[in-house]
Specification:
The protein is an alpha/beta fold. It has a single domain (3-204), classed as 4-Layer Sandwich (Metallo-beta-lactamase, Chain A), CATH 3.60.15. Helices cover 15% and strands 28% of the residues. The protein contains four helices and 13 strands. It has helices at 51-57, 71-74, 163-173, 190-199; strands at 7-11, 14-17, 23-25, 38-40, 63-66, 83-86, 92-95, 98-104, 120-126, 129-133, 150-154, 177-181, 203-204. The protein has a seven-stranded mixed β-sheet with strand order 7-8-9-10-11-12-13. It has a six-stranded mixed β-sheet with strand order 1-2-3-4-5-6, with no helix packed on it. α3 (163-173) packs across α4. The longest helix is centred in the last third of the chain and has 11 residues, at 163-173. It is globular, with a radius of gyration of 15 Å. The chain binds zinc ion.
Length: 210
C-alpha cells in the first residue's frame, strides 16, 4: 500500500502512520484506541506532548523519540516503554527498517517556537517513501534542502505558518502530496486547509479527522 493511504489524521497536529510499525506523532485529544510502536513528539507544548494521550498509546515495546528539552515531561514513562531516544535537529536514527531524521522547526516572525530550543520536525523514510512532518514551524531556510514525497504542514497561523505561508513552503519543498494540519482545535479551521489547497501547486489531501 502506498504511504499516503497509511496516513491517518487524528486531529490538530496528530497523525498515525500505519504499517509494520505503527508510528504515532504528537497525539492529542485522541479518540483512537491504536497503540504506537514508535511515538514521535516534536516539542513540549501541551497540544503536542500530552501526558494523557501518551498514556493511551504507549505499550511495553514502544520507542519514544523526542527532543532533550522534553525530557522532564516524559521521564516518568521510561519504565513503561522500551526506550526513549532524544534527538536534535539533523540527527538521524533508524528503528529497524524505518529511518527517522529530526529536522529544525521554529518561528521566524513570532516567538512561540524559538530556534534555540532545538525543537524538531521529522522526515520518515518508510519503504523508500519519505514523509515530512514539519511540526510547529514557520517557513524556514532549511526547507530549501528538504526533499520528501509527502509533506504535512501547519496552516492555522498565530503560532505557525498561515495557509498562504504554508503554500509558499510547499512550493519550496515540492512534495508530490501536501497535507494541511494544525487546524480544527485551538486555532485555525477547515477554511485554512481549503485556502492552502487552493494556493498550492502540488496535490493536496485534506484528511478527515479519525
Ligand atoms: Zn507548539
Amino acid at each position: 500500500m502506498a504511504l499516503i493511504d497509511n496516513i491517518h489524521f487524528l486531529g490538530h497536529a496528530s497523525f498515525l502512520i500505519k504499517g509494520e510499525k505503527n508510528i504515532m506523532i504528537d497525539p492529542f485529544k485522541l479518540t483512537t484506541t491504536e497503540k504506537a510502536d514508535i511515538l514521535l513528539i516534536s516539542h513540549e507544548h501541551y497540544d503536542h506532548c500530552s501526558p494523557e494521550d501518551i498514556e493511551k498509546v504507549i505499550k511495553d515495546s514502544t520507542i519514544i523519540v523526542t527532543v532533550p528539552g522534553n525530557q522532564s515531561k516524559i521521564a516518568s514513562y521510561a519504565d513503561k516503554v522500551a526506550d526513549i531516544k532524544l534527538v536534535k535537529p539533523h540527527d538521524t536514527i533508524e528503528i529497524e527498517e524505518i529511518k527517522i531524521e529530526a529536522v529544525p522547526a521554529y518561528n521566524t516572525n513570532k516567538d512561540f517556537h524559538p530556534k534555540d530550543n532545538e525543537w524538531v520536525g521529522f522526515i520518515l523514510t518508510i519503504d523508500n517513501e519519505t514523509l515530512y512532518f514539519s511540526a510547529d514551524t514557520d517557513l524556514i531556510e532549511e526547507m530549501n534542502n528538504l526533499t520528501c514525497d509527502i509533506a504535512i504542514l501547519p496552516v492555522s497561523g498565530t503560532y505557525v505558518m498561515t495557509a498562504e505561508e504554508a503554500a509558499e513552503a510547499s512550493k519550496i519543498i515540492k512534495p508530490k502530496i501536501a497535507i494541511p494540519m494544525h487546524y480544527g482545535d485551538i486555532v485555525g479551521s477547515i477554511d485554512d486547509a481549503n485556502k492552502f489547497k487552493e494556493l498550492c501547486d502540488c496535490e493536496v489531501r485534506i484528511l478527515d479527522k479519525e
